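# step 3/5: fold
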Amino acid sequence: MRFAVLASPLLIAAAAAASAQVGSFQRHSVQLPPAITAGVSQPVAVVTGDWNKDSKTDLAVADSVGNRITVILGDGSGAFIQTLDFPTGLTPVALSSVDLNLDGTNDLVALNRDSRTITVLAGNGTSFTLARTIALTGSGVPTAMAIGTWDADTIPDLAIAYAGATSIGILRGDGDFSFASDSTVSSPVDISFMEAGDLDVNGRTDLVVGSRNAGRVWVYMHAGAAGLGAPKQYSVGSEPSGGAIGDFNSDARIDIVVSNRGSADVSLLLQTSNGNFSSVTLLKVGANPVTIVAADLNRDGARDLATASGTTGEITIGFGDARGGFSTGTAIAGRAAMQTLSAADVTGDAQPDLISTSLGSADIAILVNAGSGSFAGGSAHRVGSQPIFLLSADLDRNGSPDIATANYNAGTVSILRNQSPAGFIAAAQYEVGGTNPLAGAIADFDGDGLMDLAVANYGSGTVSLLRGDGAGRFGAAVAVITGLSQPRALVAARLNADALPVLVVAVEGTDEAISYINAGGTFRKGSAAPVGGSVFALVAGDVTGDGLIDIASVNAQDADVSVLTGDGSGGLGAKARIPVGVRPLGLVMGDFNRDGRMDIVVSVSGAATLRLLTGDGSGGFTAGTGILVGGQPRSVVAADFNGDSNLDLAVSNQGSNSVSVLIGDGRGGFAAATAFAVGSQPSGLVAVDVNGDGRMDLVAANLGGDSISILIGKGDGSFI
């Protein structure tokens, strides 16, 4: 078993641009620290607690293949320092932590399906010992377990569900690790989950049971000495799969939330004044949600929700408003085939982190809460099909940077509005009015003070303009440039003395870069200059030191970089061609050696390297040696990631599903690359402060995952 502490990825695909340039693209990734090997084959249940009483969160894991409980001791920072194994019966499928003998120390209880037994481990404050193995006598295969006080005393009892049975077995505890099986309560035959809690706040444990095929939950209220009363049934969504309880509308009554696997949504059952429940559908979540967790993830005093998808690898979070309402579900990247999800503070920062296990995987994935409910280890937001570039700007004028992606296959742009500290609203989709959008730029193109979006459509040979309304919404796309032969890259820059930006478009069919002069949102052709074959990115900056903006292109087919000089009136002239290596795909400008001259860094996909082109201040460049990064590096961005005032680098690695970060020394040198995991085939990348903490974060567009990943910067060059 490996413990993977995941950092929150925001994936961004971008056509090109320097950090200071209008329409720049940046990517962010998530780092996976070294795995901790604990020998577990298939974790199926995880509980948390302080097993050795050092005030730090520890884990206990049921291994259904290894037939054991593995106890993992934490150091309070999210790392784990020791593992202890304890044998169980055959195929443990459920695990709980509770103080069975009322000695002030929690014990562990495992339900073993194939041996039809219960394993009890007694805790002593430093470790565990086997206290009891209990044979089950109920009819059928045991599948689920809940713990509570089902009779009139305060000693914990067990409730056991059996596959195909019409009753739940109640095992009454004696306070000495023994149990008497002396009663049953009627139940559905298709129990999908059991959740215990004090629903009527009378100090006694009640029980909530999900009926998978009927789309119902059964609620059993404690009836005093008589035990659990007759159940009441309530309709929820299709195939309820998990439940959690809490007061979600601040009325001092305990409510129930249910994840529904078949309908991919969440039902909320609000408790009424007479002790009954009223069911409503809350929000849509990722496909096949297998479980649900309720916790205050953003520490605003309201309970939030998180569901785990059993198929897409998404965790969907809905932030509660303490009035029974929840935000539209925000998806973050988890692991494939998840089967469990829990919340606990494993890093000691008083913020609940998320812990998941997956079918067929020996990993326990820990998604670290980076604050305000954003998670390191996988913050991924769904966008359109094949997001190929990424842009960032404050589109709704609320002071927080928003995200736009161009979705190559869908023919759309996705707009994700940043409602920091709550995070990003689910993406809104806009048609681009063309096919195969491949590049874009954000700027005020019509002079109304509001951000607009220009998109180059490779398939239809057009550039579309979507005018913004200042609230994060856009009007219908209008083709402002037509008749292009495969426009591949786009940048907006101040190439003349006008206040409005000029568009420069790289056209693959003619191997030229064409400037288009802006006349308030309409464009006329300026000049054309030759570039190399198959331009993947354009950037703008003053490379000649004359105060005028120049253009550089990275040419994948010709394995070089073209430098075009600006004349100050929108015209471009060919200046130089610099060989850089096989299949260069991205570039960024910046003064990396702090000599006052503009340099260029190029990602060379064929060599899996970055190369620094040191500028001489007059448009000439000297190519340095390559710096190794991940496989098939694509978009590259520059920013100060560690607060030392030197420019650092980040690059999306499309072939290794990661982002590499390289810390600069201010003299043109860079430390070895550190890789952070993101989604599938990261293409675009941007560097931007998404959470307003003054530190640069990274956002990556995942071409293969139809999502973006967000990596939260810690200010020291590392990301979560």
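# step 4/5: annotate
The radius of gyration is 29 Å.
# step 5/5: archive (pending)
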